[in-house]
Amino acid sequence: MKLIPLIGVVLIVLGILSFFVPVPHNEDHSVKIGDAKVGIQTQTSQKIPAAASVAILGAGVLALVLGARRN
């Protein structure tokens, strides 16, 4: 399989998954005083904006079309 259609398939799969799977993000809020460190760590999960998901999906379709036209 050629490289451009393979990249297109990967982008399409990532574009579809980005609509449903949230991306985890960790933040460390701490203060270090001397040898002591006091703080908390928060974790949030946010989905990628829909416009970015559509752009990834569109890039995948474009790569598939361009890869098919080269053959």
Please give a structural write-up:
This protein has two helices and two strands; from the N terminus they run H-E-E-H. The chain is of the alpha+beta class. The chain has one domain. Helix 1 (3-20) runs antiparallel to helix 2. The model has no long low-confidence stretch (mean pLDDT 90).
What tags apply to this protein structure?
elongated; alpha+beta; single chain
Largest sheet: 2 strands, antiparallel
Biggest sheet, strands in spatial order? 1-2
> What is the alpha-carbon Rg in Å?
20 Å
Query: Which strand-content bin applies to the residues?
Result: 25-35%
Low-confidence stretches: none
Estimate the global geometry from the Cα principal axes. elongated
Helix count, DSSP H or I runs of 4 or more residues: 2
Terminal CA distance reads 11 Å
